[in-house]
């Protein structure tokens, strides 16, 4: 890997080359994610895949919450490198992330007896241990991603994403070849959480970026990060942790649950995987356009909506056939369900965009309130006395609308001139 020197001047606008690099890395990450799901669905029966998918979702949930560190680190490093004066004592984000990771892992281990029997029906204590260790590593992974995004080092940002994704595929492929079964796929899920160590060892630019300091002091950094983590945790329930939410609101998912979870995962991945990967780009984009917050939303929302509309048509027309050909005769569903699930993914994608804008505007309370409101609404809708498929669609379509409304209201209110006292 060849690295350029770390620039010392202010961070400039988001370059097209940066978006292209992250886009390429996102494509590789998406393919790797599909590969892991394909290997698991092919190697396990639907009931076994349901167990794997719940752990995959649980890890996505906790690491999704840790992505709040990515968002806060991106904003802090970006502001620090625009020439704004330092506020308070020096804060090193990676050190903060290490503490947060250890505390989070300890919290998982200490509380596991209260919730693990409800979530993990097989290999319970192994799942708890892997979840805790994986989260500790991912806190540093997410923070380094955010720092690279804030500093504009998109090649290293993409390399870290790809290393994480490829590591998972290698372990999953080895699982199929050796016959490790469900246990191997559990290890594959968390294997990429140490990718940040590989990048630091290989890249001088990554090591120099890891030494950068935040714009604000530690207390302010943690206060902003706590709001971002709360919101990212709520978003993770809807994005990666949705299988856990289904498990919590359904007595027995069984084979039908495995089919629904796979359908939800496949229909949202084309939109949400790249969008989640490009959180750093989005936040930096909105920070650079902080004088026109609402106007800056128009382009990304239009792109997301257009891609979602194409996805709805493709899901209805080819989705059932692709599902059956790709994963076998046990995974059968209708084109209508896949189309509605794709529309739900588009709604979550729009919520992700408005959330990035609120983070960039330092509206942390509104950011977290929007995501928490969307998640609470979706969880409540999942308790409706309807079929699993129907309530899943309603929850994924209607829940995000609550959060979008909260974010847009906060952005509009923040742009109004304040009346004189």
UniProtKB/TrEMBL annotation:
Subcellular location: Cell membrane
Membrane topology: Multi-pass membrane protein
Keywords, ordered alphabetically: Cell membrane, Membrane, Transmembrane, Transmembrane helix
Transmembrane residue ranges: 22-41, 47-70, 96-117, 123-148, 169-188, 194-214, 226-247, 253-275, 296-317, 337-362, 369-388, 394-412
Identification of the protein by name: Integral membrane protein
């Amino acid at each position: 890997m060849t690295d350029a020197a770390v620039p010392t001047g202010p961070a400039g606008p988001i370059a097209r080359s940066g978006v292209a690099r992250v886009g390429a890395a996102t494509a590789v990450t998406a393919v790797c994610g599909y590969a892991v799901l394909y290997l698991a669905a092919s190697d396990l029966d639907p009931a076994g895949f349901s167990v794997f998918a719940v752990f995959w979702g649980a890890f996505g949930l906790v690491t999704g919450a840790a992505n709040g560190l990515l968002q806060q680190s991106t904003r802090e490093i970006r502001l620090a490198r625009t020439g704004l004066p330092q506020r308070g004592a020096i804060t090193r984000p990676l050190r903060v992330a290490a503490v947060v990771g250890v505390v989070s892992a300890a919290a998982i281990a200490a509380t596991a007896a209260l919730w693990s029997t409800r979530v993990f029906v097989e290999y319970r204590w192994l799942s708890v241990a892997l979840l805790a260790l994986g989260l500790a590593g991912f806190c540093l992974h997410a923070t380094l991603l955010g720092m690279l995004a804030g500093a504009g080092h998109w090649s290293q940002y993409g390399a870290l994403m790809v290393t994480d994704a490829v590591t998972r595929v290698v372990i999953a492929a080895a699982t199929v070849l050796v016959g490790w079964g469900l246990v191997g796929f559990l290890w594959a899920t968390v294997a990429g959480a140490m990718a940040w160590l590989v990048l630091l060892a290989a890249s001088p630019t990554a090591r120099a970026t890891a030494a950068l300091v935040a714009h604000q002091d530690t207390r302010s950094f943690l206060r902003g990060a706590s709001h971002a983590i709360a919101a990212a945790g709520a978003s993770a329930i809807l994005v990666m942790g949705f299988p856990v939410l289904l498990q919590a609101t359904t007595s027995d998912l069984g084979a039908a649950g495995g089919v629904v979870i796979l359908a939800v995962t496949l229909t949202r991945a084309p939109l949400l995987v790249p969008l989640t990967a490009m959180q750093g780009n989005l936040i930096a984009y909105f920070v650079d356009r902080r004088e026109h917050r609402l106007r800056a939303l128009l382009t990304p929302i239009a792109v997301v909506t257009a891609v979602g509309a194409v996805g709805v048509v493709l899901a209805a027309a080819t989705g059932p056939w692709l599902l059956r050909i790709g994963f076998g005769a046990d995974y059968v569903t209708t084109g209508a369900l896949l189309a509605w699930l794709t529309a739900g993914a588009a709604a979550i994608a729009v919520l992700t965009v408005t959330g990035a804008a609120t983070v960039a505007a330092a509206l942390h309370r509104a950011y977290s309130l929007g995501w928490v409101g969307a998640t609470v609404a979706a969880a409540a809708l999942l308790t409706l006395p309807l079929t699993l498929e129907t309530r899943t669609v309603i929850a994924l379509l209607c829940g995000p609308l609550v959060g979008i409304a909260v974010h847009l209201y906060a952005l509009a209110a923040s742009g109004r001139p304040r009346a004189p006292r």
